[in-house]
Amino acid sequence: MKKLNKKQYSIWINSLGMLGLIFTLLFISSCNKDFPNTLRTEYPSDTTNIKEGKRKVLYLILDGVRGSAVSTLLPTNINLLARNSIYTFDGLTDYQLNTTNNATAWANMITGVNDVKHKVTSENFAGNDLINYPTLFSRLKASNTTYRTVSIASSAGFNVNLATDATEKQTLSTDLAVKDALIAELKTKDADLIVGQFHSAETEGTANGYEITNAAYVNAITTLDGYIGSILTELKARTNYNKENWLVVIASNKGGNIATVPGSSDLGVYGDASRNSFIIFYNPKFSSQPLARPDVNSFPYVGVGPRFVASTTANGIATLSNTSIGNFGSSTGGEFTFMFKIKNTASAANYYPVFLGKRSPFNSVSSTGWGFLFGGDDYQLDWGGSPRPGGGKVRDGLWHTIAFKVFNIGTTRYLALFTDGVKKTTNLDITSKNIDNNVGLRLGADIALNGNELTNIMIKDVALFNIAMSDADLISNMRKEMTTSNPFFSKLLGWWPGNETSGTTITDFSGKGNNFTATAGVTRSAFEDLSPNVSPLISTASYRVVINSVDIPTQIYQWMGIIPATNWNLDGRVWKLLYTDVRNN
């Protein structure tokens, strides 16, 4: 063997070192393949170097499947898909005030606009404006004539009205037949968009109720979940599946009415079971992103209101000139409900100053009339001296809701008191009490005679109805901010929100014209408070923190690389999709 000189030996040694380094790097690289990168990467901005196949969409519509029912049942296949989905069980068909139906719900999720625009408001699609607000099928056809789109439905109305521009469509008599046709399509053909519409859960819900206590309804959902499993199995068995990139959308068109759930009325549209849907955007490369409705108690009660302060030298009050307002008559009189919101920020406990009522002298319990007064940190309602039920603690710096109703059962007249959605009394017999008078209803206490009578309160949303609401209706409504959409609005004798920022008038918004006139001592204070006792109006923005039906077409356009024109006037938004492993996409 030829002996290496010193220079050749040095080169040889360095070469071995370099080979070792390369071997080490290759070894580390090969090991890394067993430990996938789990760092989340946002789509669409961070997609450099992502390997993508041809983008396609499978869109399955399950009529009448409530999102909360799916959340409770957690069907096997839907639950598995959620692991690689952005999804919500608190989705919304829409957040309008109309009565929803299948046709309106379908139109929302196929056009990307709500019924104010597409004008599908009845099951027969009469008066629709699908010309100006075309469907997903029409938009894809106009964007690229080579797109092949398919609609397979179990409801004729869906295909006839919404799938006219689908390349192919089938209307079948059962959901089972729809499932089989979808599998046949996936097995043998090549579509860019496949839509499958199933109606069996809606049929069972309409017939026997949308409750999960309805075995037929639950069975329909479970069966549909099985269909989903079979369809996804066939999708992944496609010959070219690894060269394709499928967005799978599974969504209910709407929910269905169920028995009222306590507290649901405080949730706004979120409490409407008929609008409660579940929506899933699935791809095996997505990370799990659950979207839940916001906690209603996280919404602050925000506004401005009149402040009534009574010191030992001055006070502020507001009085009605119409002295008949707040007279409730005898057992032959009508029935009434009275409610208001109050915030007591007095620095010390108050002993017996009347702060709201209709009596003269105002602070005398021996006078004819009625009034609310403080007793320590609590309050009481004095009804002409007796009864005087207590309503509980209100001096804590929080907003509280207080209400009473006067009603008749036979020839007996009763009074009942409520605080923060809780009935505080039994029905109190006031048959013998007629405490009508000719003084005006008043807000705000007298000048304090001593340090025990100092008051510092805000009063808002005072409302008087000429109806005795049921206990359930009163409890439901008293916590809410009053609006013109209140179901008892037509029964108002007066409604004083107290939203004025200045001046001496507290306006009656019932339309009756009975305004309060305030003294100069009444000031206006802005507030933004969290309170468990008030259900503030839920803003439209809060309904957009979960996926809405109108978002689905917008998300599909984005997935397909189609940029919607401004004049499409879509109502939907695009959701950011998070990937689990961008290297293998």
Question: What does this molecule look like?
Answer:
The protein has helices at residues 6-32, 67-73, 76-81, 102-111, 115-118, 136-143, 156-162, 175-188, 200-208, 215-236, 471-478, 551-559, and strands spanning 41-43, 54-62, 85-92, 149-153, 168-171, 193-198, 244-252, 276-282, 289-290, 301-310, 318-320, 336-344, 350-359, 369-376, 378-383, 390-393, 399-409, 412-419, 422-423, 428-429, 442-443, 455-465, 492-496, 505-506, 516-518, 523-529, 577-579. With 585 residues, it is α+β, with helices and mostly antiparallel strands. The strands form 4 sheets. Strands 10, 12, 17, 18, 19, 20, 22, 23 and 26 form a 9-stranded antiparallel β-sheet that branches. Strands 5-4-6-2-7-8-3-9 form an 8-stranded mixed β-sheet, with helices on both faces. It has an 8-stranded antiparallel β-sheet with strand order 16-15-14-13-21-11-25-24, with no helix packed on it. Strand 15 and strand 16 (390-393) form a beta hairpin. The chain is elongated and about 90 Å long. 43% of the residues are buried. Residues 1-50 have low confidence and may be disordered.
